[in-house]
Amino acid sequence: MKERENFGSRMAVIMALAGSAIGLGNIWRFPYLVGQNGGAAFVIVYIIATLFISLPIFFAESVIGRRSGANCRGAMERLAPGTKWKWMGFLMVFTPLWIVSYYSVVGGWSLEYLVQALRLDFIHTTPENLSGLFERFISRPYAPVAYHLAFLATTVTIVALGVKSGIEKFSKICLPVLFVLVVVIAVFSTTLPGAQKGVAYLLKPDFSKVTLKTCLDALGQSFYSLSLGMGIIITYSSYVSKKENLLVSGVGTAVSDLLFALLAGLAIMPAVFAAGIEPGSGPGLIFDTLPYIFAQMGLQMPWLSSIAAILFFVTILFAALTSSVSLIEVGVAYLTEEKGLKRGWACVLLFFLCGAVGVLCSLSFGPLAGTKVFGLGLFDFADTFASNVLLTLGGLLVVLFVGWKMARPDVFDEFTNGGTKRANVFWFKFFYFMIRYVAPVGVAILFISNLL
Ligand code: PHE
């Protein structure tokens, strides 16, 4: 068998993991959640949820991945041969493929918005003309499908190039660019007249807004944002060399993810307030509200506004691409290692499979709007089922496996590199306790609350 590839350096590991973590969730959901739930107070709750629940799950996945050095399905066969845990392996392969099918529909929207920004469409229209734009935009039958397929084709092309020359290289270019762009936009946005209200909305601590629901929102967001429960951390960690420090790469990923989310908030919210709009969350925030702001700004400062629009949609596109790459890699690792497919063919197969499901999701905003599953359109069903069921179930199984099925010395050995990393020896006790007792309870509560 061909030798497995590894990431080339510690920086490469963090960039690939952070690339997966930093995605649409940081841009369209985090800023809104912060604003709605007490600003800095929410950020504190978010950090606690990350430390006590999300990071432990992250480390549990890292341990599984690096210990086994295999894809999700193969990992379970190596660590628990011949047991029912193999189903956890299958779930972890299935979930990301399910997600990438509709995630790339959104990726397609960002691609088309970028094209429009480059054609200066947003400034050549008046804000009034933009009302209902997003609705009209996504309900067209052909263009969104074509852009979805273009986005997915880009994703699989990067993955087909391999772990080092594809994923690693791409993340190393994208991540620094993402950070530079978001800082530039944040500076621009916070200096707009009337921007202070947005900064206050985001940062002013208000502990009276912190409720149980806030805590669950913080946990759900940090869970999704770190790309947990879907085999990505397992797969990426299987490419981490035995010399690397799992604690450092995990903390590095969580810190970059949070930092980016805060910067994204500073990029978006001040502009939203400067334009006198109520902030919202979800796709509407970036595909409805922002074009409106660009158009409004364009009335006075056409050039600045078009540059801002272009930079912004490049950011969205790159953030989405580094995430979709990580989703596809889980399936590719499985197909190449378990089914003996060549990397290129695995990519082609997944392109057609996920592409077809995505086409249905895309059409559910237009011609297939009448088709409902459990009362939801196909796209909404795919998203709800993944976020509320698949991910939390995956996260729960991961911590149960590492906390209760794997032998403690094995987990210790992997997390501390055989006891040689002194700081890790100290943190092991903390995280192991969290993995065994706190994280399962936390995720179980999240799971139940999602179903209610
Ligand atoms: N972590 C990404 C975000 O914050 C989302 C994501 C979900 C990425 C699923 C990959 C897989 O947006």
User: Strands across the major sheet, in which order?
Assistant: 1-2
| Net shape | globular
**Mean of pLDDT:** 94
The name of the CATH architecture is Up-down Bundle
How would you characterize the overall build of this protein?
This protein has 452 residues and is an all-alpha fold. The chain has one domain (10-451): Amino acid/polyamine transporter I (Up-down Bundle). It contains 18 helices and two strands. Strands 1-2 form a two-stranded antiparallel ribbon. Helix 1 packs across helix 8 (163-190), helix 4 runs antiparallel to helix 5 and helix 7 (143-160) crosses helix 14 (302-338). The radius of gyration is 21 Å and the shape is globular. The model has no long low-confidence stretch (mean pLDDT 94). The structure holds phenylalanine. The site of phenylalanine (PHE) has 13 residues, from helix 1, helix 2, helix 10 and helix 14.
Write the layout of secondary structure elements.
Blueprint: H1 10-21, H2 24-36, H3 40-68, H4 72-79, H5 86-118, H6 133-139, H7 143-160, H8 163-190, H9 196-203, H10 212-225, H11 232-237, H12 246-274, H13 283-300, H14 302-338, H15 343-363, E1 372-373, E2 376-377, H16 378-405, H17 408-415, H18 422-451
Antiparallel strand pairs: 1-2
Phenylalanine binds next to α1, α2, α10 and α14.
